[in-house]
Specification:
Elements: E1 2-4, H1 11-25, E2 29-34, E3 47-52, H2 60-68, E4 74-77, H3 83-94, E5 98-103, H4 108-117, H5 124-134, E6 137-145, E7 152-160, H6 164-171, H7 178-184, H8 197-206, H9 212-218, H10 222-231
Parallel strand pairs: 1-5, 1-6, 2-3, 2-4, 4-5
Antiparallel strand pairs: 6-7
Helix pairs in contact: 2-3, 3-5, 5-6, 8-9, 8-10
Length: about 230
């Protein structure tokens, strides 16, 4: 599961909330490698070990190699910064671990493209196949100022890759067609439940939580946002 967004978009906070919830409900072995450690997880029903790059391990890749020998159930990689870390993270996901990580990208399709861009053309097909099999969700989020001026509210774009159509598009390299899946696979079913950033922003405007002009500034695709506002 990838959480993406600009610096300060609340990615680490969202992941911390998810890990804390899992720790409260399940008996798991959770290991993190972060740079720096932003949240200290309380030991609840799960056993949580946190490592910091530069203090406990030399690099993300060294931390990943070490933790995979410790039989974790859940892994949190603070950030995927290079091709070696991405490859090791994908391998961890393929071998049955639940892996959380972050990237600095603004939307779901851009996230897939960014990951592929880290690799040479000779490895693109291999990485697309790994992504199609190992990726579960991409959640791209933004913190948008509230209409009443009291703080900010999260707006999210969610790509559910447990959907066969999405996995197939990634595997075959038709990344530009993922947005249409986000627009159409919106029903409350396990393999759907997707939403575009524009749709979520439009919902916040109609719920009177975000100002229309503010929402327009945060939309990735202004034309799509305008269409959603007119249609819904």
């Amino acid at each position: 599961m990838l959480l993406t967004g600009i610096t300060g978009a609340g990615k680490s906070t969202t992941i911390a909330s998810l890990i804390d919830h899992i720790s409260e409900k399940s008996a798991c072995r959770i290991i993190t490698v972060e740079d720096p450690i932003e949240y200290i997880y309380q030991q609840k029903y799960s056993m949580v070990s946190q490592r910091e790059v530069g203090r406990d391990v030399k690099s993300f890749i060294e931390g990943l190699r070490a933790m995979l020998r410790e039989d974790p159930d859940i892994i949190f990689v603070g950030e995927m910064r290079d091709s070696e870390t991405i490859a090791m993270t994908l391998m961890a996901a393929e071998t049955g671990h639940l892996v959380f990580s972050t990237l600095h990208t603004r939307d779901a399709t851009g996230t897939v493209t960014r990951i592929l861009d880290y690799f040479p053309s000779t490895r693109q097909s291999e990485v697309r196949n790994q992504l199609s099999l190992g990726l579960a969700y991409i959640i791209s989020q933004k913190l948008v100022p509230k209409k009443d001026g009291k703080g900010r509210i999260v707006a999210m774009e969610v790509l559910n890759n447990t959907n066969y159509a999405c996995a197939n598009l990634i595997r075959t390299g038709k990344i530009e067609q993922l947005y249409s899946q986000l627009q159409t696979k919106t029903k409350n079913r396990p393999n759907e439940k997707m939403i575009t950033m524009e749709k979520h922003l439009a919902m916040l405007v109609k719920e009177d939580k975000v100002d229309l002009l503010e929402a327009k500034k945060w939309a990735n695709n202004l034309t799509s946002f305008t269409d959603v506002m007119k249609r819904d």
